Amino acid sequence: MHVEIDEPGRKVLLMGNEAIARGAIEAGVDFCSGYPGNPASEILETLAGVAKKLDFLTEWSVNEIVALEAAGAAACAGLRAMTVMKNMGVDVCSDFLMTVNMSGTKGGFVLISGDDPAVHSSNSELDTRNYARFADIPLLEPATTQEAKDMTKWAFDLSEELGVLCMVRTVTRLSHSSGLVSLGPITREERSAEFAPLLGTWTSGSGDYTCMFHDALHGKLKTAQEKFEESQFNWYTGKEDAEFIIITSGTGWLYSAEAVKLLGLKDEVGILKLGTTWPLPEKLIAKHLKHAKEVLFVEEIDPFLEQNVKVLAAELAADIGPIKFYGKKSNHIRSEFGAGVGELDVDTVMRGLTETMNVTYIPRDQDYAEKAEKLVGSYAPNRSMAFCAGCPHRASFWAIKRALKWDGRDGIVTGDIGCYSMAQLPTGFMVLKSMHCMGAGIGTATRFGNLKRYGLDKPVIAVSGDSTFYHACIPALINARWNKSNLLYVILDNKTTAMTGNQPHPGIGIDALGEPSPVTPIEDVCKGIGVEVRKCDPFDIDEATQNLYEMLQTEGVKVIIFSRECALTEAQKRKKKPRVYVDQDKCIGDECGCMRFCTRVLNCPGNIWDYTKGKAKIDEVVCNGCGLCAKLCPAGAIIVEEVV
Questions:
Q1: Which residues does residue 558 pair with via DSSP β-bridges, in sequence order?
Q2: 308 C-beta neighbours (distance < 10 Å), count
Q3: Fewest CB atoms within 10 Å of the CB: 24, 392, 433, 530?
Q4: Which domains are assigned to the chain?
């Protein structure tokens, strides 16, 4: 790995997440925790890969609040600690975040939040910068991979000096892009853990103490602001006394710099790039507002800078005079989905500049653009999202669909975020009828399943993955039994945290380093709660359907565990896969009453249609060999042949 190279000054190609990991290593991190979640997953994975060699601790925690609490304890004891999570994870840990900010820290304590503009792998565009303002903690926003490394390293120093948690916000395009990074030295300072908090207790206080700690927190933030005024991560480029300036942060700086260059506005427009975005470096901003007549804000996702700078401008109005502000509020910075949502790009900023500065820019001939669009629309078919070939979730949702059909009461299926979220789409037969945060499937089902007195008398099925079970579902399952709900909880146990890159969880038996760890069986936890539990393989489709149907006919809280390893991890372990093919002599083709069931309904990527023969066919390169289609083919035309 490049992240473990101890050659100061050497330039290496690192992904943004790797650069963040390297920054923690150069800072001498002692402990790092997290919960898998894109776009931030690779940070802890990278650190875990070198933890033994560099002698520090890492862990995948059961959820984000536990991860932050664990790191907080390490920092309280004087160690340098970091917690990594995606944007939605900050929601999960916010309860502890809003108290540990006031209780303070002895060792450097850093929270990395991976935001996901345009929701590439999320169900919300949550802008976590608002949490930094809400919690009164310093916020840093890197724009490049080099800054990702340098800012992370500095965040530990800043946190340790101020005695407060510091937050670093990255976004998908930075986390998953690569760039050259100049390495600094790796230092491994020997630190001793000691529990010796202020006043003898580690707390955010109560009563008068809470007010005292809150006031102290404001003082720390004021000190951070003073340091931000001279920070190397803030700079201004362009015409020194420009009347039109761009104020930007993060990836917005790259888009802004390129847009200004392409439009030939380098001699007219100034760009104020901020890397320290909370608290604002007010003196630095005021210096440039004094010569500005117009300001364009470029940032993802919320108008965070825009709002805060406008407040500052109102306070300075007597000194700086009137300024025209443009950004998300004025709809001049907007993605294809609108202002305040989606990702930005160079074209977005160029459009904002042309609309506000009355300049024109035509990137390509209109006739060419129309022809290109027509060609794309004609020859590039839309590609729908789908489960992987051999994914056990496909079988699980087919079994659920069949069981509900047998039951005949138009049951409700609730779920949450994960690979199985795609069951809202044709790939999962559109079985899933709700999808919110982790654990919300079973949480909402506890009440959907207990509304009979108000006329909602339908069977309710909640669905979650195995990692999600440990993360957020156990309290809701206890609540369901405690409050006499009537529901069936289906746990899709594919032995991994699949959606985020196959990280381990408490039911697998290995930890973040790949070392053996105690297993906490899902079945035992559910039985300990006192609910009926059944377990089966979803590829035994008839047995799975029968179990679902039978459990739907009884009252109370029931659990069925569909246990089958993720197709991706299973394929990595085996040497050969079964050969699956279509006996086209048996396949009836369009004359079959199934109406192309294998390709139209089951829709596995391995099932394709042979248009030359009008028969079904298996793409043997894509096919995983699971054999589900063979079990469901009404003509028995799909053959599974074991390879010896």
A1: 488, 532
A2: 18
A3: 530
A4: 2-228 (3.40.50.970), 235-357 (3.40.50.920), 392-572 (3.40.50.970), 575-641 (3.30.70.20)
CA gap 509, 496 in Å, rounded: 11
Look up residue 508 and give its two tokens. Answer: 């697998």
561: β partners: 491, 535
pLDDT of res. 411: 95
**Residue 644 — very low, low, confident or very high, per pLDDT cuts 50/70/90?**
low
Q: What is the mean pLDDT of the chain?
A: 92
10 Å Cβ neighbour count for 585?
A: 7
Residue spans of alpha helices (H) in 505-587: 522-529, 541-552, 567-573
What pLDDT, in 10s, does the model give residues 561-608? 999 999 888 888 888 888 999 999 899 888 888 888 988 899 899 999
Q: Which residues contact 250 (CB under 8 A, 6 or more apart)?
A: 141, 142, 143, 169, 171, 174, 299, 300
| Cβ(621)–Cβ(605) below 8 Å | no
**Residue 311 CB partners (closer than 8 Å, separation 6+):** none
Nearest to 617 by CA among 599, 597, 590: 599
Cα 239 to Cα 130, 143, 325, distances in angstroms: 31, 21, 19
- Which residue shows structure tokens 């310093």? 138
Beta-ladder partners of 82: 32, 110
Which residues fall within 8 angstroms of residue 529, CB to CB, at 6 or more apart?
A: 474, 477, 478, 481
Say which residues have a Cβ less than 8 Å from residue 305's Cβ, sequence separation at least 6: 247, 248, 249, 274, 277, 297, 299
Helical residues (DSSP H) of 27-144, grouped into ranges: 41-54, 64-76, 87-103, 129-135
The span from the CA of 455 to the CA of 462, in Å, is: 20
241 to each of 159, 230, 248, 315, 317, how far by Cα in Å? 35, 20, 17, 21, 18
The residue among 398, 551, 525, 534 whose CA lies nearest residue 473 is 525
Whether residue 636 has pLDDT greater than 80:
yes
How sure is the predictor about 157, in pLDDT bands with cuts at 50, 70 and 90?
A: very high
Model confidence pLDDT, tens digit, residues 308-355:
999 999 999 999 999 999 999 999 999 888 888 889 999 999 999 999
pLDDT at 379: 65
pLDDT digits (tens, 9 = 90+) for 430-465: 999 998 988 899 999 999 988 888 989 999 999 999
Question: Per residue in 184-201, pLDDT tens?
Answer: 999 888 898 888 776 677
The whole-angstrom separation of Cα 357 and Cα 45 is: 46
**β 434-436/412-416 pair status:** parallel
Cα 631 to Cα 17: distance, rounded to the nearest angstrom: 43
Is 377 a residue whose pLDDT tops 80?
no
C-beta neighbour count of 554 within 10 angstroms: 10
Identify the pLDDT of residue 381.
Answer: 65
Res 380: pLDDT: 63
Long-range contacts: 258-267, Cβ < 8 Å, 24+?
Answer: 258/346, 258/349, 259/346, 259/349, 259/350, 259/353, 260/353, 262/346, 262/350, 262/361, 263/350, 263/353, 263/354, 263/359, 263/361, 265/353, 265/357, 265/359, 266/238, 266/239, 267/238, 267/239
Instruction: Tell me the residue type at 272.
Output: L
